[in-house]
Amino acid sequence: MAEYTEAKKRANKKWDTEHKERMRYINSRSTARNFIKKQATKDDLTDFLSLISDRQQLLNDQNETEIK
């Protein structure tokens, strides 16, 4: 892997500091995706499908409320 310059390291650290919520989102999404791809059992996937369906419905309901 290529070495970063000191300026690039500082810029990355500054971005990370200024975007903590975005970093948390990216890290959580990555963890979830990796778990699903590499470790999830059939029962896990069934549970996740239910959770996803519930979340989609919640977001759809919120979206409809905003449109009205």
Could you give a quick summary of the protein structure above?
The chain has about 70 residues and is mostly helical. Helices cover about 85% and strands about 0% of the residues.
What does this structure look like?
This protein has helices at residues 6-18, 20-38, 42-67. The longest helix is centred in the last third of the chain and has 26 residues, at 42-67. The termini are far apart. The chain is flat, with a radius of gyration of 18 Å. 85% of the residues lie in helices and 0% in strands. It is mainly α and 68 residues long. It contains 3 helices and no strands.
Structural category: mainly alpha
Order of helices and strands: HHH
- End-to-end distance, in Å? 51 Å
Number of strands: 0
The count of helical stretches stands at: 3
Largest sheet: none
Radius of gyration: 18 Å
Stretches with pLDDT under 50, minimum 5 residues: none
Shape: flat
Which whole number gives the mean pLDDT? 94
